[in-house]
């Protein structure tokens, strides 16, 4: 079950962090994987390490999104799985947030997702088959955190996009779903500092942080043929972080 043998997948933002964990698990499941990332050096190194291909991609540019999809199909003949994973999360309080801060977050996290998925759906519609998985977050749709109101807005926006897109494309054999990570131990999370990491561990029932591969395993299910009856849905992968009503509920 859940074999992705001979499936072709493209993972945006796959050079490191959660994206790299997704690439690793897709490869373990047998998929042919293309890493599409703006970081050429890290992306190419990750591709060599994991047995994937690498293509340069700036998701904020519609023509680059179209080109990477076109090139993927030219190389492999089809595109079965798109993992729209590229995302940024610089902090800014509302008091200090600028229009440029807001626009940058939305351009990468929301508009970039739209550009890439729109290009992929055109291919998948012709195939009458496709799996699109968006990396959203618990932050925004469910929880909040000071300094990330613009980030939370984009992550909630991704889910609103997903639900309507899923309705439009269900009749073509295309499923569009999302994973919602909690605190996953990536380079970006480590950069928040040890105090933040310890604070997050204390707020999670498992008292651990997730691994990037934990998100990848959820993605593999949503990318599989067995998930054919699942669309417009989310899977939360957070170690139970959103469950406690109060800190007293944590054992």
Automatic annotation (TrEMBL):
The keyword Membrane does not apply. SUPFAM superfamilies: NAD(P)-binding Rossmann-fold domains (SSF51735). Keywords: Oxidoreductase. One of its GO terms (molecular function) is 3-oxoacyl-[acyl-carrier-protein] reductase (NADPH) activity. Gene3D superfamilies: NAD(P)-binding Rossmann-like Domain. Its EC number is 1.1.1.100. InterPro entries: NAD(P)-bd_dom_sf, SDR_fam. Belongs to the short-chain dehydrogenases/reductases (SDR) family. This is 3-oxoacyl-ACP reductase FabG.
């Amino acid at each position: 079950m859940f074999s992705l043998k001979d499936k072709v997948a493209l993972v945006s933002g796959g050079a490191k962090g959660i994206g790299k964990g997704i690439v690793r698990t897709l490869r373990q499941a047998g998929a042919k994987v293309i890493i599409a990332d703006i970081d050429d050096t890290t992306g190419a190194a990750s591709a060599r390490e994991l047995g994937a291909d690498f293509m340069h991609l700036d998701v904020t540019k519609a023509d680059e999104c179209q080109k990477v999809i076109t090139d993927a199909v030219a190389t492999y003949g089809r595109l079965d799985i798109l993992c729209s994973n590229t995302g940024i999360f610089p902090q800014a309080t509302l008091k200090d947030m600028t229009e440029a801060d807001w626009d940058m977050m939305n351009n990468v996290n929301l508009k970039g997702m739209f550009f890439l998925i729109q290009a992929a759906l055109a291919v998948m519609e012709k195939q009458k088959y496709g799996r699109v998985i968006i990396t959203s977050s618990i932050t925004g749709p469910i929880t909040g955190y000071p300094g990330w109101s613009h980030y939370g807005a984009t992550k909630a926006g991704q889910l609103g996009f997903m639900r309507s897109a899923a309705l439009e494309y269900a009749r073509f054999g295309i499923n569009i779903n999302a994973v919602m990570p909690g605190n996953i131990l990536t380079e970006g999370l480590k950069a928040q500092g040890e105090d933040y990491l310890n604070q997050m561990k204390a707020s999670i029932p498992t008292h651990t942080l997730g691994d990037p591969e934990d998100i990848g395993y959820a993605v593999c299910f949503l990318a599989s043929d067995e998930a054919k009856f699942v669309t417009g849905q989310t899977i939360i992968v957070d170690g139970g972080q959103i469950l406690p009503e109060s800190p007293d509920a944590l054992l």
